[in-house]
User: Fold this.
Amino acid sequence: MSVIVRDMIEADVPLVSRLILLSFDTALRPYMTYTQHGVGAFLSVHTKYPEADPERRLLVATDQFNPYGVVGYAEFRVGKDDVGFLSYICVAESARGRGVASALVRSFIHERPQLLELQLDVFQDNAPALSFYQKLGFRPINRVKWVTRPMPRAVGTARIVSLHAAVASLTAYGFCELEVINGTASTKVGLIGQKVVRCFSVETFDNDELLGGLRGLFPDADTVLAILPATGVGNVLSDHEIIQRSDRMKLSLPGRPPR
Assistant:
């Protein structure tokens, strides 16, 4: 199989959306933004307006004999300090073991010669992926845990900045970000589907008042999710469950100064 890597185009969206969905275990799909109903619409926006988010790269892999038959997809971001991040990568089952994933990663690295390293997250129970990344030269740098708790009961209603825009995003894509006003401060959370509230700190995860206000607005939300450093989970005060563990890994790029 001769793999061709190119930019994702709008015609690829249905195949890529399906490929992403099939790449995640069904038990994790409620907690993933890209397994929600509107991921295709979300990806279509980027293919139409890539200049609006130039640091995000969407690449697909095809067979030279079928350039419109997508067999692999990868999404990368470039952050500050010339550090890249592999957000998603998935390969069709029929094309696994044929160099598709390697071609996607190497294509991105080749087009970004300024990168000093590439990072990614991988589930600890995904042995094939761990083995693949280790062969490419990735090494673990820290570990995180996915923790959940039940949403507290509704208490009033939260104040949300640009609530109409957030609800429109939720309707169109199946996920959104919310900026919650809590006193004189604001806190960012995510809403995944109708049921999962994503928190980005231990303090927010434990904040019954803030979460109760969110449930007043979104009564179907019944689960709180946070993805926390393994060393920080001990600081969680509320009853919680660990549903997954993942490793953050990095690849120091050859011929470039190590970090």
